[in-house]
Write the structure tokens for this entry.
Amino acid sequence: MKLRTALLGFALLCTPMLAAAQANISNGTVRIGVRADGALMPSVDGPTTGITFLATGNDGLTPGCLCEAWGIADAISGQSGHAGADTGSAGITSESFTSTATTATSVVNAFGKFRVTHSFTPSTASPNLFDVRVTIQNISAANTQVLYGRAMDWDIPPTAFAELVTLQRGNSPALVFSSDNGFHNADPLNPDSGTNFTNQDVVDDGPTDHGAHFRFNFGNLAPGASLQFTIAYGAAASTAQANAALAAFGAESYSLGKPSSSNDGTPNAFIFAFKGTGGTPVDPENPVDTGATTCASEGYTGTKLLWCQNICEKGYTGSTLAMWIRRWTDRYRDLPYCAANPPPPPPPPPQEA
Ligand SMILES: [Ca+2]
Ligand SMILES: [Ca+2]
């Protein structure tokens, strides 16, 4: 009894500390839930929050699974890690977490090689956005090559699990893979075959249960050096308002999640965007729509379908990708559809800070 009382007292003492190690933050228009590991949708006192548009009270992530995640890899050593509320965590250890009513900063160690800081602040570009400044530092003694992935399964009320997804890749040479598979754990070394599409610019695809996944290769990062880029999360009352926020932010690549109950993004369109990744801002008013071409939609079957998927839709890179391309060209003397948009060349050396 005494032990139990003592443990209860200890638990009560610890509760405020544990609760403070993750936070829901708000700018009055949008509420974001930030975990200690830098992913979204923490377990805190208050509503479970991914990205909530306060005007409708709807959250674009929390219906169904809490599927949102980020991951990092060193392509030289082949090490990787990832963190997410429902997709699990590997190789990521929390170093510190601080927050206010409007800001949150997560600092983690990634498999002893990187220190990764996700700093959430209200965007100065738009009240519909939060900025997440991401800083990746090589804390090892070895040269590294940095891959960063981030994924989310859009679930957009009032038609959650039947949402429309727009994905615009832009021209950043560092963006090496994208898909609408929001269930991915974002580990950059984990292949992704997409839900409806990979590596394509698509407008309002669906309705189906899908999301957005972006993977970047930021190139070599020397011991002690750092690189930075910025993510935006947000929500707006319509496609037009979401596009205005994206333009103000200067998005280089982005995804929008919208309900399928309207054709103008009402009553809420949700935003996931990147800048500072080496590209130029896209024009959200004139999105590119190539339709969701897939190996299956190309009419391939059997071996040809499988090999096409290995080249175009599995997210393979390096020698594995080269092997499948070689097999394909040896047998078929041409290239599958995605060869019209070949993987970009290696990115320039990253900005060091
Ligand atoms: Ca969900
Ligand atoms: Ca979904």
About this structure: DSSP finds four helices and 18 strands in the chain. The chain has two domains: 3-275, 302-340. Residues 61-65, 67, 153, 155 surround calcium ion (ligand 1) (CB under 6 Å).
